[in-house]
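Hello,

Our lab assistant flagged a job as stuck in the queue for most of the afternoon. It eventually completed. Since we weren't sure the result was trustworthy after the delay, we are filing this so someone can double-check. Below is the sequence as submitted and the structure that was eventually returned. Let us know if re-running is recommended.
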Amino acid sequence: MHEALAKDADLAAMGLALVSLQVARVAPSADLEKSLQAPTREAIQQRADEAGFARRANAVEKERAIKQNELQTEIDLAERQAELLSRQGRNRLQSVQAEAEAERARVEAELAREDLAAKAYAEQIEVRSRGEANATRLRQAALLEAERERVGVLKQAPPGVLLAMAAQELAGKIQTIQHLNLTPDLLRDTFQQILRDGTLASPGGGVGERG
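-- returned structure --
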């Protein structure tokens, strides 16, 4: 970078010589940094959602096992009761078995509903993750397009405009510059170039065209 700037024809034409170059900091803009961090945040959120779904599925499975054990215990108890009541007739045994089967059907229906709810929750997480990923891609594309447009505008700007923008940038970073030599000849040539280009720095910090 130092060698390229030292050989820059525009600097030589303005009577400038590059003595030293120091880059204090290179960092993305706040929006770009937020956009770059978005995939990591989404991946962490997705892992958290998946962990929550896994815990829910595990809880459903445990509840299923408990209810099945309870149901099996009820069936075993019913069978023992049926053996004790066999002397009173088979009708009583059939009644108990019918109740057990009804309970089994109820438990299975309840478990089926919970399975459907868990699957719906998983699908919701997947849809939301895809939506967030698409939004992230759109934000990144918008940032890249804005950067391309900014570069295009800078390429078409007159030298005076670029010089004024460089001066504004320099003013914001003046504390990080250790050495800066400005001669009267340099300032005179610079302002003459600005007047020839027909551009002046506006009071608000931008660049406006002189009437």
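-- support follow-up --
The delay was a queue issue, not a problem with the job. The result is valid. The longest helix spans residues 90-156. The CA atoms of residues 24 and 173 lie 9 Å apart.
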